[in-house]
Amino acid sequence: MERNLKPLKGIHHVSALTADAKRNFQFYTETLGMRLVKKSINQDDTSVYHLFYADERGNPGTDLTFFEIPNAGRNQRGNNSISGTSLRVPDDESLNYWKKRFEEENVQHEEISSQSGRATLAFEDFEGQRMILVSDENNEGAEGGKPWKKSPVPEENAVYGLGPVHLTVPNADPTEKVLTEILGFRETRKYPSSVQGQKDIRVFETGEGGTGAEVHLEERSDLPPERLGRGGVHHVAFRVEDEEEIRKWAQLMKELRIPNSGFVERYYFRSLYFREPNGILFELATDGPGFEGDEDFEHLGERLSLPPYFEDQREEIEAKLKPLKTSN
């Protein structure tokens, strides 16, 4: 439908929960080789960290973020959930590197397999976070980011962006309508579920399509609702060009009477939040301004970064946070 809105450009970021910021930092920077581009706070609860891992500078479409909730229970997997987060690697050969690395570092993982025409390697972090490495060997579509040259992982094997996000719901039709009729995704293909007796998984893409612009929608009749906790995913964000566009989206949500947050200033980007009918939290987020407004490129993620509107509370905020050493 014609709404004077530009197509969403792909996945912007995925935000998950951890109960242990220190171990989380070690796993995602030392084991996965991603760069911590911002050590900040949950702007809705300033007593906990918000950590941003990405490519060399946090280019849009590369951010995997975590809210630290120290007393969070373990995530109880189920329906109405973001059930899998993909990370892009350059090619099929990279997956052999990662399989060996996971074996050496005792990371729980599956075998290399094919998913919807791409080579993949599923694994879990130390809290059971479900992750999938996806080969970009045959990818055509949204570009990935640029690996950080100081990463412990060689550039030719490095994680350099987010891949498809997996949603699991008890009834796919209402979610499909939001994806296609409101957000402008298009259904492109299907592939069989790994669970006998369940429907095929449906693939939707936006913008230029490809690995960095897909949602994989799985309908499961055999699962209870998820109970979100550590190792679970809080929300997924989709890429919007700029502030002008995000304000158009806010107006559209108002016209459609869809409950939403309205325009939200996050400093590093501008956002809007809403829940689709199965209760999964979606965010629309702008590509900019980015992470270099308060730290230069060489020192991203080294100090506690607070948006300007929290700076006058720095002493109080730092007193509540457990120290987290993220620089040499």
From TrEMBL:
Residues 10-136, 161-287 form the VOC domain. Keywords: Dioxygenase, Oxidoreductase. This is Ring-cleaving dioxygenase. InterPro entries: Extradiol_RC_dioxygenase (IPR052537), Glyas_Bleomycin-R_OHBP_Dase (IPR029068), Glyas_Fos-R_dOase_dom (IPR004360), VOC_core (IPR037523). It holds the Pfam family Glyoxalase. The lineage of its organism: Bacteria, Bacillati, Bacillota, Bacilli, Bacillales. GO terms for molecular function: dioxygenase activity. The keyword Oxidoreductase applies.
